[in-house]
Amino acid sequence: xxxxxxxxxxxxxxxxxxxxxxxxxxxxxxxxxxxxxxxxxxxxxxxxxxxxxxxxxxxxxxxxxxxxxxxxxxxxxxxxxxxxxxxxxxxxxxxxxxxxxxxxxxxxxxxxxxxxxxxxxxxxxxxxxxxxxxxxxxxxxxxxxxxxxxxxxxxxxxxxxxxxxxxxxxxxxxxxxxxxxxxxxxxxxxxxxxxxxxxxxxxxxxxxxxxxxxxxxxxxxxxxxxxxxxxxxxxxxxxxxxxxxxxxxxxxxxxxxxxxxxxxxxxxxxxxxxxxxxxxxxxxxxxxxxxxxxxxxxxxxxxxxxxxxxxxxxxxxxxxxxxxxxxxxxxxxxxxxxxxxxxxxxxxxxxxxxxxxxxxxxxxxxxxxxxxxxxxxxxxxxxxxxxxxxxxxxxxxxxxxxxxxxxxxxxxxxxxxxxxxxxxxxxxxxxxxxxxxxxxxxxxxxxxxxxxxxxxxx
Length: 458
Ligand SMILES: Cc1cc2nc3c(=O)[nH]c(=O)nc-3n(C[C@H](O)[C@H](O)[C@H](O)COP(=O)(O)OP(=O)(O)OC[C@H]3O[C@@H](n4cnc5c(N)ncnc54)[C@H](O)[C@@H]3O)c2cc1C
Prior knowledge:
Layout: E1 9-14, H1 18-30, E2 33-38, E3 56-58, H2 66-79, E4 88-89, E5 93-97, H3 102-117, E6 123-125, H4 128-132, E7 148-152, E8 156-158, H5 160-173, E9 177-179, E10 184-190, E11 193-199, E12 204-206, E13 209-212, H6 218-223, E14 235-245, H7 248-254, E15 259-262, E16 267-269, E17 277-282, E18 287-288, H8 315-328, E19 339-347, E20 354-357, E21 364-368, H9 378-389, H10 407-414, E22 441-442
Parallel strand pairs: 1-2, 1-13, 2-9, 5-15, 13-21, 18-22
Antiparallel strand pairs: 3-8, 4-8, 5-7, 6-7, 10-11, 11-12, 14-17, 14-19, 15-16, 16-17, 20-21
Helix pairs in contact: 1-5, 1-9, 2-9
Cofactor: FAD
Transmembrane segments: 12-28
Pfam families: DAO (PF01266)
């Protein structure tokens, strides 16, 4: 006898970045869910979302942690599928550190070991000459700051914004609903149950389950009156990005370069994108933007924030971007910056993501805490989120991604600087999922660059 058709669970997903998009994809493919994705931005992919960018590094095994190394290899298998429309470019990645930066070097060593253990042909490079020898002779390279590390021929980068767009189109094709300009400002609570969400317009959107994947806006959303629920020590941090424009001749010269990633000071850069833009950034401590309206919780200040349209970054960070470029491609360091941007991480204490049910509710799931390294997992992360939703978390990660209040902070202090435990001046993760150097600062207008700083330096 045929089983009666099961009623599908109606899920509202808040946020159309990679956490929300990938969750929607895996739920729709599973077949048991009706999915509505809501995003506050009127244009999708949201231009100021962390996921929307020229490019992101796609590491293949390049994690100190074997479980994450394995998960990104799962992601690579999916990135290579035609459904991602060629948004993934397998250029290889240099993972580098100076020998006197112990944390960076330890990360590189462990990541190299994981690559080899997983059968990747990663090759050690014991100094600048070994690094240079892997470039076409026509590419003018620099001192690489005396770094060493390894080259992984697998991995590379993704055209990030386009990949999100491709993913959202797949969500629609699978029958999901995506609503732009639908800002969630509250939850409809009935005891421990969430009946749906409230939009800024006042409209209520009913659901059986809510997944909040609002990226760096999640901490301030939970501090807002409409949600007003406990939330772990997760912080929005602004990270500095800059781009330069290559001429067609320069594009030709630099077209075969890999991604370069310094695991000691966090500087990294990409090959030119299809428009000849080269992006560089720093995976670092970042800045915070605490606001009185959110009781001091840091709120992203993006190009869509009135008064911040120019995307100015701290001048100090611009100088660090240029210095990093001078060490790797000295000729390109002489060029003007064409854009800068503060791009916002949703940072947890250890760098592990936050994917779990909220303990105060029966049907509210958090899928966030990207901590500056989640994009590469876009095709696969929804698989893991779905397991959490179905209360069958992957044993390799379930506990690490669990909702926490003070325990992780205390544990991190015990491990000595394993995480950023204070709102300002905290040292960033050295022992968690990822490695990061530096101290957080409060974002101050007076520290931001002026337009003339973007010009090439004499
Ligand atoms: C500068 C920078 C460089 C990075 N580089 C890399 C890299 O090289 N490799 C890598 O793997 N990862 C990288 N990352 C990390 C990666 O981009 C993030 O971990 C990931 O994109 C986070 O996705 P998300 O879905 O959590 O957040 P987002 O992409 O920010 O999406 C959140 C969405 O929620 C929406 N939203 C927010 N509030 C509401 C609300 N109240 N109602 C409705 N919608 C709402 C927003 O509009 C947004 O569209 C980088 C991040 C940054 C900032």
